[in-house]
Each structure stands twice: as structure tokens, then as C-alpha cells.
Amino acid sequence: MTNFVYSKEYNIKCLGLEKIHPFDTCKFEKIAKHLEENCGIDSFVSVNEVSDNELLEIHTQDYLDRLNNSSEVADLCELFFMRFMPISVIKRYMLSPMRHQVKGTIKAGELAIRNGWSVNIG
In this structure, what DSSP letter does residue 5 have? Predict the structure, then answer.
């Protein structure tokens, strides 16, 4: 069994807008590809999105409710233009990848406890 956690859903791609962000929002697929091609890693543990119940163990309901408002998400991410995007687009192309990454961190922690080590590429 592999100790590397990765999902293609980690990558943030939103109508080309990711190209104006200062960070590479698709670096996760590049890392996975590098591990496959250069390190012999041939499989990854994949994950779904973290659930609201799991998020409520750390965050308040008020915070999760704020993630249903484009202006609030724009403020949290410090990306002003997102204020004008439908929340459904923000959820699909930005928040969903982040929720997958959070679940990957949880899974990697579980694997590390069980196997002694693990890496979440997200």
C-alpha cells in the first residue's frame, strides 16, 4: 500500500483565472507526475471531499456559512474579483479542491499513525 495521498481534484482550475494567481494552483499534479516518473511511485491513495461534520470539529458553523457567499470567500482568499462570481462556480472550482486537500491531510495523518509515515501532496 502506498503512503502518498493525492487526488486530481486537488488542482484549482477556474476558467483560466488561476493563471493570474501568484501561486501555481496546479502544482499538485506536477508533483504527482514527478513522483511517478522519477521516484517509482505508481499509485496514490485518493480521497473525497472533507464533510461538513468533519470541518465542524475545527471550524464554527458561522465560518462554514460564510463559505456560501461570494463576497465572504473573496475576502477570505484576498481575491477581490471573486466577489462577482457565482458561489456555485467558486464552490466547484476553488472550494471543492481545497476540501479534497483537507481530507487528504486527514487521510495522511491516519496513514502515518498506522504505517509510521505518510505524505499528502496537497
Answer: E
Q: Using one digit for the tens of pLDDT, what is the confidence trace for 6-38?
A: 999 999 887 666 676 677 888 999 999 999 999
Q: Cα torsion for 9, 10, 14, 16, to the nearest 10°? A: -110
What are the CA-CA distances from residue 34 to residues 39, 75, 95 (Å)? 7, 34, 25
Which parts of 1-122 fold into alpha helices (H)?
27-39, 52-55, 61-66, 70-77, 87-90, 96-115
- Please state, in angstroms and rounded to a whole number, the distance separating the CA atoms of residues 89 and 93: 6
Three-class SS state of 119:
strand
Residue type, 86: P
In contact, 45 and 4? CB cutoff 8 Å: yes
Beta bridge partner(s), residue 5: 45, 120
